[in-house]
Structures are given as C-alpha cells and as structure tokens.
Amino acid sequence: GHDLAPGLRYVPDHFDRAAQEALVAAIRAVVADAPLYVPRMPKTGKAMSVRMTNCGALGWVTDKDNGYRYQPTHPETGRPWPAIPQTLLGLWEAVSGFAKPPEACLVNFYDPEAKMGLHQDRDETDLAAPVVSVSLGDQCLFRVGGTSRSDPTRSFRLSSGDVFVFGGESRLIFHGVDRIYPGTSTLLRNPGRINLTLRRVNP
Ligand code: MD3
Ligand code: FE
To answer: Mutation test of ligand 1: which of 170, 194, 195 has the most ligand atoms closer than 8 Å to its C-beta?
Structure first.
C-alpha cells in the first residue's frame, strides 16, 4: 500500500479473490440476519440511493425524524446487529494501528445507479480512531478532498479487494462515490458494489 497524504493510506488488492469470496459469504449471512434497508436523509426524508445494514455492537442509521446516529439495533427488525466477521476484525488489527477493536461495520450496497455525495463522517465521538474501508464487486469512482468542502479533490477508481485507511489528519476529509462501473467484476451475482467501513464510535 501507499500513503496518499498524512493519515490516508491506500492498499490496492489487499484481499485476493478467495478472501473476497469468503467476505461476500460472511456479508450475505449478515444481510440474512439484518436486511438491507433504505436510509433517509434527516428532515427531508429523501431516500439515499445506497442500501445499508450494519454488523457490530453499534450501527450507523439515518431516518427523517431522528437523523444520523449510531444505535445497537436494526431500525426495522429491532434486533441487535450481527457480529463483525472475524476477517474484518483481523483487517482492523492489521491496518488500523489502533488498539481498541471496531464497534461498527457499515455495509453499503450500491446498485449500478447508486452514488454517495461528497460528505464528512463526523457522527463518531472517537475521532482519534481511523475508518477502514473495503471495496467488493464492481469498480467505482471514489473522490477524496480535504477537510474543507472547497478543497481540491482527487479521484480513484477503486476495485474489488482494495482497502483504504482514513486516520489522523485525514479522518475528517470530504469523500464520496461519484459512480459505479457495472460489469467490471464477477465477484457478485448481480451488478453492483459493496463497501464495508469499520469504525470506532466511542472513546
Ligand atoms: C474518509 N462510504 O459510508 S468508503 C460512508 O464507498 C462512505 O461506501 C463510501 O463514505 C463508500 O460514509 C466511501 C470510504 C470512506 C469511509 C469513511 C471515511 C472514507 C472516509 C471516513 C473519514 C474519511
Ligand atoms: Fe463517509
């Protein structure tokens, strides 16, 4: 891997094909227990194009009335989130440089039309911990900027198996997913992309 900026590390092809297949099987088990749901923007209730679920002690959720937050249960089933798969706990140990384990793993599913606007992740109380991200399935155009919305941005075409670590000075950078390139991977049964983000929420 290589450092793109202080705290910003890109590890292309971290997971080989067999490891990616094992991760997809583990995520299918998570989704069977905690189904993907349509997250909605605070106040407007506008649907996001990405579908989401979580695993771990806490999950990131959003809806019209209560907005962005972490909670211990699925917003539709009311059940606790399933455990974070061991492979992902091992990834966190290997790349995060952070002693405490992740509390949350957000699972984002992008169909070929889905995208995610430029934003910062700042719903976590513990901003000392990095965020670790894994891409699976079709490639995407990922954009990262600086800590101000108006800072210049750089784009990367992320592929299945790639890992990104956002820590230190890069923990609060703006980032987003501009597009999916359907048909660029054979990992998933259907076109689309899965992104997993491991986070610490509380200090
Ligand atoms: C940089 N997800 O869920 S992962 C998100 O591909 C999110 O699904 C995108 O942005 C996706 O919030 C991008 C990369 C990522 C995740 C968290 C970050 C980049 C980050 C937190 C801080 C800085
Ligand atoms: Fe984000």
So the answer is: 195
The 10s digit of each residue's pLDDT in 7-48 is: 999 999 999 999 999 999 999 999 999 999 999 999 999 999
ipTM, 2 decimals? 0.95
> How far is the CA of 73 from the CAs of 52, 53, 58, 194, in angstroms?
13, 10, 7, 21
- Give the distance (Å) from ligand 1 centre to CA of residue 82: 21
User: pLDDT grade, residue 200 (50/70/90)?
Assistant: very high
Q: What is the residue with the minimal CA distance to atom 12 of ligand 1?
A: 121
Specify the CATH number for the domain of residue 162.
2.60.120.590
Provide residues with CB under 6 Å of ligand 1: 106, 108, 116, 121, 131, 133, 164, 166, 171, 173, 175, 177, 195, 197
Task: Please choose, from the candidates 98, 87, 90, the residue with its C-alpha nearest in 3D space to the C-alpha of residue 30.
Answer: 87
Domain that holds residue 22: 2-199
Would you tell me how many other CB atoms lie within 10 Å of the CB of residue 44?
A: 8
